[in-house]
Amino acid sequence: METHVRYLARSPIFETEKAFSTDYPVDHVEGARRTNHEVDDRPVTVSAIEDPSYWKLDVHGFCILHAETHLDPYKKKREVQDAYWYEIEAILHKHFPQYSRIEGFDLTLRKRGPEFPAISRGYRDEFEQPASMAHSDYSQGGGFLTLQYCFPGQDDYWKDRDFDMLKCVTIFLTGVHKRERKEPDQRANDDVWRPLTGPTDDWPLALCDYTTIDIEEDIRLNDAIRRDLVGEGSLLHYNKAHRWYYFKDQGVNDLLVFRNSDPHGKRARE
Questions:
Q1: CB neighbours (10 Å) of residue 118?
Q2: pTM of the full structure
Q3: Which of 42, 102, 74 is nearest to 239 (CA)?
Q4: What whole-number distance in Å separates Cα of residue 169 and Cα of residue 112?
Q5: For tag attachment on the chain, is the N or C end more exposed, with fewer CB atoms within 10 Å?
Q6: What residues does each domain of the chain span?
Q7: For residues 46 and 203, what is the distance between their CA atoms, to the nearest angstrom?
Q8: Cα–Cα distance list, 177 to 54, 164, 165, 172 (Å)
Q9: Nearest partner of 260 among 178, 192, 211, judged by Cα
């Protein structure tokens, strides 16, 4: 597939400012900006994944699971999220038995509006739009900020624990996956994506092979300013070495699992 990927430009502004963005209007504040991002749209080839078993989480930053799930997309999310979380948690326990505990803490619905991507910004109460810029939801520090927000008062509990964070979209699940510490403290963020209905080739998720990313030169930390918290993620600068992939005709029982970050930057992530 020949398409474009929206990267963050290597702008001189980042010599004096940290990258940031908001998800709500700030026009009422004099001199305020919603973001200091400059877009770098690049033509790229996004290849269809031919052999799902080839991709390894600890090598490429993502892997693909096939598992049966039951989710009624026509019910309100609060009516189905607990049962859905249980299914996702059971699937992850089966495929990643090293985790001793899996706990969901967020559920978000994404549905592309008819004006997207021509109009891609703006907060929606009904649903979020697909992400339009190459990114990772959590940086090394951003994972801890999310834990502090979602599990207030539990800093001592998570101290010196090894855990991952996962997410599933078009409904996406974010969770903490804690395992007993068997080596020096290492933390990572994993995501799990699946469509509500399928197969889907409308704005499919594109994944960049971690082995093609220069982590010293290509990654930019970004403050994600929300209505109720400030998080930190990572944005991607263009590099011609990047190799992008997508899962053609992804069905409701096809799950993309990928890692966002780890605190030491030593494990493959997406």
A1: 7
A2: 0.80
A3: 42
A4: 12
A5: N
A6: 2-259
A7: 12
A8: 24, 5, 6, 15
A9: 192
Show the tokens assigned to 66: 């096939």
Tokens (6 digits) for 269: 């992530």
Handedness of CA 82, 88, 92, 93 (dihedral sign): positive
Q: Which residues of 19-42 are buried (b: 16+ CB within 10 A; e: fewer)?
A: bbbbeeeeeeeeeeebbebeebee
Query: Which amino acid, 264?
Result: H
The two tokens of residue 63 are 């892997």
Q: Strands (DSSP E) along the chain, which ranges?
A: 2-8, 19-22, 39-48, 62-66, 101-109, 135-136, 162-166, 171-179, 190-193, 207-208, 219-225, 230-236, 244-246, 254-259
User: What are the mean pLDDT values of the chain's consecutive 10-residue runs (270 residues total)?
Assistant: 94 97 90 94 95 92 86 64 79 84 71 61 56 85 84 81 60 40 40 67 84 95 91 96 92 83 66
Residue 105 pLDDT: 73
Amino acid at 85: W
